[in-house]
Amino acid sequence: MEDVGIEIPVLDLEKGIEFYETVFGWTFDRERMPKQGYATINGSIGVSIFQTKKLRPKGLNIGFRVKNIDETLKKVISKDGKVIKEKFRYENFGYVAVFQDCFGTELSLTSKFA
Known about the structure:
Blueprint: E1 4-10, H1 13-24, E2 36-41, E3 45-51, E4 61-65, H2 69-78, E5 82-90, E6 94-100, E7 106-111
Parallel strand pairs: 1-3, 4-7
Antiparallel strand pairs: 1-4, 2-3, 5-6, 6-7
């Protein structure tokens, strides 16, 4: 599992995958996440393309892998951050949670299944 994850919302999955494969030369693995495209860059950055009906104004979603999401969320709250979405299971990928830092920037946390 990669240390940093970037999620790119697109309105058309196949068109988005074709765009990013052409522009950056990324190869998306459709078996790992069948409803998305998933590529690994330099062995440490994961890029996921996912289809949505409406693009959000925030744009990209940046995620950081941690050993324990629950403990990390406690630290977020202790430093005036806010939990946006509690930890949830995400396909065969692992766990994910979404938070805002003390300035309102939205980020994600990921961890392997325990």
